[in-house]
């Protein structure tokens, strides 16, 4: 299992009550609808992509892999984003995805 980013580890240590509240919010929003775990993972990866947030893309790629999504399914999120966020931004997102995906075996 990959280590948590240092900044997040420090956040957990410095603000444990806020971290617990944040985790509970995440659990609540996941339970609030009918999307499957796989669908939620793709939506959250798409949101991170649209925000062009490197850290969030890394985190959501790791989560998607843990759920069993395939590399080509994850990369399709970047491809689908091209008309919305633009080609250069989508290529940046794909490179962030590859930071994680290239460390994993298989296709």
TrEMBL record:
Gene3D superfamilies: AhpD-like
Protein origin, superkingdom: Bacteria
Key words, A-Z: Membrane, Transmembrane, Transmembrane helix
Transmembrane residue ranges: 77-97
InterPro entries: AhpD-like, CMD-like
UniProt GO molecular function: peroxiredoxin activity
Domain Carboxymuconolactone decarboxylase-like stretches: 16-98
Pfam families to which the protein is assigned, alphabetical: CMD
Name of the protein: Carboxymuconolactone decarboxylase family protein
The species this protein was found in: Stygiobacter electus
